[in-house]
Amino acid sequence: MPENLMDKLVSLAKRRGFVFQSSEIYGGLGSVWDYGPLGVELKKNIKERWWRSMVHEREDIEGLDAAILMHPKVWEASGHVAGFTDPLVDCKHCKNRFRADDPRIKGTPGQPDAQCPVCGMKGTLTAPRQFNLMFKTFMGPVEEDAAVIFMRPETAQGIYVNYLNVLQSSRQKVPFGIAQIGKAFRNEITPGNFIFRTREFEQMEMQFFVKPASAGEWFEFWRAERLTWLQGLGIRPEKMRWHQHGKDELAHYATDAYDIEYEFPFGWHEFEGIHNRTDFDLKNHQQHSGKKLDYLDTTTNERFIPYVIETSAGADRTALVVLCDAYREEEVQGEQRVVLKLAPALAPLKAAVFPLVNKDGMPELSRTIFDDLRRHFNVFYDDGGSIGRRYRRQDEAGTPFGITIDGQSTEDQTVTVRDRDTLQQVRVAATQLVGYIKEKITG
Ligand code: GAP
Known about the structure:
Low-confidence stretches: none
Bound molecules: glycyl-adenosine-5'-phosphate
Largest sheet: 7 strands, mixed
Radius of gyration: 26 Å
Distance between the termini: 27 Å
């Protein structure tokens, strides 16, 4: 998929109601996006599948929904106040800002040879300075230093500070995990590529607490699990690969980390990470809070601070992977079509109901079928325009099944079901439709 297809995807996302730019009528807010009627369903389907596989299908993982706002000391203990920074340079001439390692910069920022990638001036780039990526706000009515709190840059810390609460209330034993889905915020210097890197995004994170000696084994276990889960979303295996972090890439909390990368139209990039965070976070929270966070293994009488294996995925970035992977331009019966070949389980709409014409009892029967189906799935009713155009619209929305009610339907109560991908049409009794679709979309 060449790069300009990214523009086509952005345009389709807007046209069909997947993703809109935030505050668009005011000119938009940089790298913040809103999910429209279809986008919210797609992202919800991804999050629900993640939650099901992590929390419902496993006995050893509990769910959590911690608040976005946390005690400011959390971010000192976690190392984010000191270490969650990017090196930033300014152009004194055009006032643009860049990451110091922006590949477009020629020369060394701060030196006379350095050239601004936007205005082209030489010697106008400042020496790099560290810029903290956390958004700050104030708690309470007075805007003073003592009232500063942060918008969380990762959901993980909400899990660590609740580790004891969950352990005690759920009666779990190490090894066990805590999973959470929620918003995170980063004041990224160079956001972009649509919903790939944004300033407000959602994470699906799971922290698995283990005995230090078994951390390596669990790390490999979760790497395998996560890849299998992603393949279950229908993402083509050849478009994903592992990238192990080198020493210079590791986050301040990790001793080992692997990214799962996807081949986006703009290159290979990370969309999920598996990290061995050791006892870094719990140890630091124990030290800063003064609250003991160690664990007593009652079978061996060992006392230790658990190590943490983290799986960290972006819900928005996973949605972008799913959209990129599903996007196809094809020729069908001499006509071009754009189709999103989404896995039926992820598709925002499972089926669309079309009366062939708006007369001869077809609209009435279509409405009855539509009302019946929507008690089970998210379905769409469309009686506008030629049947071909209606199919095309649903192809772009990624709807796996098109149900047409025609002249025969009013006589024998059967309908045609068109498969989005194979384009084959089969006749199905109206009474069998729910079962027919259910069977195809479960997975
Ligand atoms: N708790 C570990 C952590 O936050 P990370 O690699 O910084 O690790 C994990 O982020 C995932 O969160 C990324 O793989 C990506 O999917 C998502 N993510 C991070 N920053 C993002 C951003 N600015 N916009 C969208 N998604 C982002």
